[in-house]
Amino acid sequence: LPDSGETAPVKESEPSERPTVPTDISAAEYQQRADDFFEELVTRVEHMQEKRPDFDLEYAAGVLEVSVTGKGTYVLNKQPPNKQIWLSSPVSGPKRFDWVVLGEGLHQKEGAGTGDWIYLRDGTSLTDLLRKELGINLDVNDDAP
């Protein structure tokens, strides 16, 4: 109230678990992490092809296309200038994923974080999205340096 001398209580913001900025990594680290991700993804999709004839894989010139009969085509590619992986999904649409180290906040042990490719607008993990939409389980949440 302006004349009473009392101030309105300040509402503290709740801590957010969702990352809002990418982790700062070098171009060389980006290339290594992106290459490792694509290598693991290609291996997993090839294994899926053996069990599921509705999966088709094409990987050329750094662009990975996974076609799923009745669902559509997923396109993933590296974007080195932005240090991102871009995905076009017939289910969830286009997204740009940044490398983010998770679990190294103020109250957590240094070096205890893990990393993943995260869509910063809504916090979606690329590995979770591929698991949900394609049934591909990737083990790429490796320890962060």
TrEMBL record:
Cellular component per GO, a single term: mitochondrion
Enzyme class: oxidoreductase
Catalytic reaction annotation: 4 Fe(2+) + O2 + 4 H(+) = 4 Fe(3+) + 2 H2O
E.C. no: 1.16.3.1
Major subcellular site: mitochondrion
GO biological process, one term: iron ion transport
Region called Disordered, residue ranges: 1-25
PROSITE patterns: FRATAXIN_1 (PS01344), FRATAXIN_2 (PS50810)
Keyword terms of this UniProt record: Ion transport, Iron, Iron storage, Iron transport, Mitochondrion, Oxidoreductase, Transit peptide, Transport
SMART domains: Frataxin_Cyay
UniProt cross-references to Pfam families, sorted A to Z: Frataxin_Cyay
Cell location: Mitochondrion
GO-annotated molecular function: 2 iron, 2 sulfur cluster binding; ferric iron binding; ferrous iron binding; ferroxidase activity; iron chaperone activity
Protein family: Belongs to the frataxin family.
NCBIfam families hit by this protein: FeS_CyaY, mito_frataxin
Official protein name in the record: ferroxidase
